[in-house]
Amino acid sequence: QVQLVESGGGLVQAGGSLRLSCAASGDRFRFSAMGWYRQAPGNQRDLVARITSSGFTNYADSVKGRFTVSRDNARKNTLYLQMNSLKPEDTAVYYCKGELSDPYARDYWGQGTQVTVST
Fold first, then answer.
1. Taking every pair of C-alpha atoms in the chain, what is the biggest distance, in angstroms?
2. Which of 22, 37, 52, 87 suits a disulfide with 96, CB 3.0-4.6 Å?
């Protein structure tokens, strides 16, 4: 069974930085894409950043220029999110998602990690 585990969340002051990591265990296959999503209380879960196996990336407009998503090609299915110039509105639970397309289509989610940005 595939499990995704996020780490690196915490409390940081506005303007600071955090680096989130996501590692998959029990995976036999490579995810075609991986991404970070976030959900603040009372809000829906939204895409933050996503990266495909070929390296194509896309970001939410609110994080462009501040966040960088990357994958570790040496460690299959490992994902990172470097977050700089953090703002209080970035406060949310951040979730890692792995998208499997071969040999079958299925999405996997981590349990989430809390990021809190104080003023």
1. 46
2. 22
Distance CA 81, CA 48 (A): 9
Tokens of 50: 């996503």
| Cβ–Cβ under 8 Å, residues 113 and 93 | yes
Summarize pLDDT for 11-60 with one digit per residue, the tens: 999 999 999 999 998 777 889 999 999 999 999 999 999 999 999 999 99
CA-wise closest residue to 48 among 39, 59, 57:
59
Contact 80, 73 (CB under 8 A): no
Q: What are phi and psi of 70, to 5 degrees?
A: -150, 160
* Contact criterion met (CB below 8 Å) for 82 and 17: yes
CA–CA distance, 65 with 82 (Å, rounded to integer)? 11
Instruction: Report which DSSP code applies to 60.
Output: -
- CA 17 from centre of chain: 15
How long a stretch of residues is the chain?
119
